[in-house]
Write the structure tokens for this entry.
Amino acid sequence: MNKVRFGIIGIGKMGSQHCLRFTNGLIKNAVLTAVCDISPERKKWAEEKLAPKGVAFFDDYKALIDSGLTDAVLIATPHYFHPVMAIYALEHGQHTLIEKPAGVYTKAVREMNETAAGHPELVFGIMYNQRTNKLYRFAKELVESGRLGTIKRINWIITNWYRPQAYYDQGGWRGTWSGEGGGVLINQCPHQLDLFQWLGGMPVSVTAHAEVGKNRNINVENDVTAFMEYASGATGVFITSTHDFPGTNRLEIDADKGKLVIDGSKLTFTELEISETEFNATNKKFMPRIPSRKIKKRIGLLGQAKMFLFEQHTGILNNFVSAIINKTPLIAPGADGIKGLTISNAIHLSAWTGEKVEIPFDEDKFIAELEKRKAEEKENSKKRA
Ligand SMILES: NC(=O)c1ccc[n+]([C@@H]2O[C@H](COP(=O)([O-])OP(=O)(O)OC[C@H]3O[C@@H](n4cnc5c(N)ncnc54)[C@H](O)[C@@H]3O)[C@@H](O)[C@H]2O)c1
């Protein structure tokens, strides 16, 4: 294959941006041939913008997949649909790229991963576009090469996802248990939870506190503090909210050979000349400092614009196409989606039950707790109506 024919399922805010990446020629060796949406308004948009370029429209995703017009699909519908549609696509011979999060609960995502594993001839990816950010990539190199040393602590404060009441009042599927399956954890944070595990590995337990509707009139969580323990003895803290302004986006990793801080678009790596363990074994001073050097990296405004236009979503799409044509390794394999979602589900479960949650957790208990919240939400909206 030298040109991949793409279909996009769900052409709302994100899906329509993906469409334009194809029609503006940003995705090499690929062509957009079909789109699907259930909304008449999106159909009209597709008729105006895409039909003149020969892109077919479907209002049923199965009909798009069965049409024979595509080799690959990108799924950009609300989260609950991602595993359902991906399983159908993979079972019908489509290379499949899903938007984040992989799904709402791990049980469905596990089934999707098993289907994908049964089709090794198909490429299966996830839109973890922040994995292309060069600061996180440098951090990954430091972790993988051993240059950072054994991680002792990983902390991320990500409270700059500011969303006012007006955002939640838009209605639709967002910010509800039934439409979305959660709040800040499932909508805004899948990228950070993925990077958290990509850099720090998977925790073995989670203890969390999550507040529902803090300073906002919503049913889902928008303020979370989670404490994680790792098999190595390391610990982690993940804090997020949508009601702090201006908020913070700061990742800190303390390790045996140095400290890494990524604060927004600035990275500082303090590299110790001798590991703390070795230093401590021989040092006789009471209050010493370990000799170190600082490495700094920064993404300026131009770099941020370039990242947004050419490197993040566009980068994942080009990498996905190249994986189909040239067998290039994926930046974000689809099977990885379950990892960040496992942390997300474990945080929810711990906050709901008030208990420490060991990973792997009881997936049926998670679903039962989620269903309880969906039922309460339905009951409350009936009372309001
Ligand atoms: N990677 C990123 O940076 C990023 C950014 C924003 C959104 N997203 C993800 O993209 C997904 C969509 O988000 P959005 O903001 O575009 O939402 P949206 O509501 O604007 O778009 C979703 C579209 O899916 C359509 N849809 C719903 N059910 C459908 C069905 N059964 N068949 C076909 N179409 C259907 C809707 O009509 C809508 O047009 C979400 O999972 C979200 O997390 C990712």
